[in-house]
Specification:
Blueprint: H1 15-26, H2 29-41, H3 45-73, H4 77-84, H5 89-121, H6 134-144, H7 148-165, H8 167-195, H9 200-208, H10 217-231, H11 238-244, H12 252-281, H13 285-291, H14 296-306, H15 311-330
Helix pairs in contact: 1-8, 1-12, 1-15, 2-10, 2-12, 3-4, 3-10, 3-11, 3-12, 4-5, 5-7, 5-15, 6-14, 7-8, 7-15, 8-12, 8-15, 9-12, 12-13, 12-14
Length: 331
């Protein structure tokens, strides 16, 4: 009897496709939305230093491990743990809890970003509806609306599902090759624009210069560690799954380094967009940075953009960036 051919799942067509797709998972709302407000809360440069130290040691090691498990087994996360040791198969099921929780979370925040993109495209950024005290009211009215958040949740979720349905090569790899370079160009362009504004240099110093006075190092460490897992897509099945589609002759450490650089670099650039912008255009930037938290992007930044000529264009570009970042991670 002739052996029947074994059907293998399609892998990434090339090395750049894998790096951009995996980096797309790592680069997302964790960098653009969460990293800047955590850095503002936990001493700016000191948070950045601790985060980078964790990223190049603990984060890099775990990233290599997860990709290696996926490439070695060639299976999904449940099959991967079962192949390593039948006694650890249960851990694959436990791991799946994380993406089950995080995908709806991404769709919620991604839906918010989509709503704001539409708002700027429709001209709300210069209408007064999103400026001054109206900025918080606009956001609160949106998230408390009985139908608007659900509509934008569905729009974002359908975009994510559509890419995944097309598969690895025609969907995930292709969208990664398009969106990741666009993300890079948009983010660097907005960062340069933000840092060139009057008063922005104070924001750059606030973000990059370590401040230890009044900072609890243990809290900074825990916040940076939590951000690392969230931002680099660690311990949530994702890198094991990407590794299973990886070609056997590829250098895992090299790719892990590239993904880490993409992720950390984008987090720094995001901070250089948001924090200098607040310092350049806000009357009490330190209070805004300390008190805005998760709403920083949706309440404080629209106020910032409203004071810039071409507010609707800048706002639309920024929230297009948010949409791309959320989309690559949700995928």
């Amino acid at each position: 009897g002739e052996a029947l051919p074994v059907k293998k799942h399609n892998g990434f067509t090339g090395k750049i496709g894998f790096v951009l797709a995996a980096a797309g998972s790592a680069v997302g709302l964790g960098n653009l939305w969460r990293f800047p407000y955590l850095a503002a809360k936990y001493g700016g440069g000191i948070f950045l230093l601790v985060y980078i130290a964790l990223a190049v040691t603990f984060g890099f090691s775990l990233l290599v491990l997860e990709i290696a498990i996926g490439r070695h087994t060639g299976k999904d996360v449940i099959g991967a743990f079962a192949k390593l040791n039948k006694k650890t198969k249960w851990f694959g099921f436990v791991s799946l809890v994380v993406p089950v929780l995080i995908v709806p979370y991404y769709c919620v925040i991604g839906g918010w970003g989509t709503k704001y993109l539409f708002a700027y495209l429709s001209g709300d950024g210069t209408s007064g509806a999103m400026t001054g005290e109206n900025a918080a009211l606009y956001f609160n009215n949106f998230i408390s609306s009985p139908w608007q958040p659900i509509v934008f949740f569905i729009v974002f979720a359908l975009l994510s599902f559509a890419v995944v349905i097309f598969g690895v090569q025609k969907g995930i790899e292709k969208i990664g090759k398009i969106l990741m370079p666009l993300l890079a160009v948009l983010s660097v362009g907005l960062a340069i624009f933000a840092m060139c504004q009057k008063g922005a240099l104070e924001g750059v110093k606030y973000f990059l210069v370590p401040k230890v006075e009044g900072v609890n190092i243990a809290e900074v460490f825990l916040a940076a560690l939590g951000q690392l897992f969230y931002s680099m897509s660690l311990a949530m099945c994702i890198m094991i799954t990407y590794g299973s589609y990886m070609k056997k002759d590829t250098n895992i450490q090299k790719f892990a380094r590239q993904i880490s650089v993409f992720d950390t670099g984008f987090a720094i650039v995001a901070g250089l967009i948001i924090i200098p912008s607040v310092f350049a255009f806000s009357t009490s930037p330190s209070d805004v940075m300390q008190n805005s938290g998760p709403t920083l992007m949706f309440v404080s930044l629209p106020n910032v953009f409203s004071q810039i000529p071409g507010a609707n264009i800048i706002g639309a570009l920024f929230f297009l960036l948010v949409l791309f970042a959320a989309l690559t991670s949700a995928i």
